[in-house]
Every structure is written in structure tokens, then in C-alpha cells.
Amino acid sequence: MMSVVLEGLSDGGVMMGISRQDAIQMAAQSLIGAGAIVKETGKHPGQVKDSCCSPNGTSIKGVHELERGGVRASLMNAVEATVKRAEELSPK
């Protein structure tokens, strides 16, 4: 699933004029960085998001677009579908 997120982020970079390879590297580093902060500090992902979002800044505008598109529900639904399918495929 995360490869789809990574690809979507890199596609956005390409759409904004960044080379494919640079966009992939930037997207990958963004995911690695956010994950590392959560892992190393023990902070809730929402705290990390809040610390990156300044009033009327670039990050909060991006978060707003993600929320408008239902990103949280889509990710939760993907996890649910994955677990259900794994259960269906598990030997009984």
C-alpha cells in the first residue's frame, strides 16, 4: 500500500515540474523522515503533522487537500480490506 502513496507523491512532484527520479527520492525521503520522527520520539503522528503545519503555510494547505479527498478513510479502508482478504486466504 505504501508504494501507492509513494507513487502518488512522486507523480505530484512530476506534475509540478520535478524530474521523475528527483520526485521519487523526495517522496521517499519524506515518508522515511516522518516515520523516523514518530519511531524515534514516540510522538503521535498527529503531533508530528501539527509541528510541521504553520498558519496559512504550505504543509497545512497540502493536508487540507488530503483531508478533502478523504485520505484517512481511504487508508483505513485499505487496511480493513487487506486484513479481511488475509483472513479469507488463511487456512481454517
From TrEMBL:
<keyword id="KW-0521">NADP</keyword>
<dbReference type="Pfam" id="PF14748">
    <property type="entry name" value="P5CR_dimer"/>
</dbReference>
<feature type="domain" description="Pyrroline-5-carboxylate reductase dimerisation">
    <location>
        <begin position="2"/>
        <end position="89"/>
    </location>
</feature>
<dbReference type="GO" id="GO:0004735">
    <property type="term" value="F:pyrroline-5-carboxylate reductase activity"/>
</dbReference>
<protein>
    <submittedName>
        <fullName>Pyrroline-5-carboxylate reductase 1, mitochondrial</fullName>
    </submittedName>
</protein>
<dbReference type="GO" id="GO:0055129">
    <property type="term" value="P:L-proline biosynthetic process"/>
</dbReference>
<keyword id="KW-0560">Oxidoreductase</keyword>
<dbReference type="InterPro" id="IPR029036">
    <property type="entry name" value="P5CR_dimer"/>
</dbReference>
<dbReference type="InterPro" id="IPR008927">
    <property type="entry name" value="6-PGluconate_DH-like_C_sf"/>
</dbReference>
<comment type="similarity">
    <text>Belongs to the pyrroline-5-carboxylate reductase family.</text>
</comment>
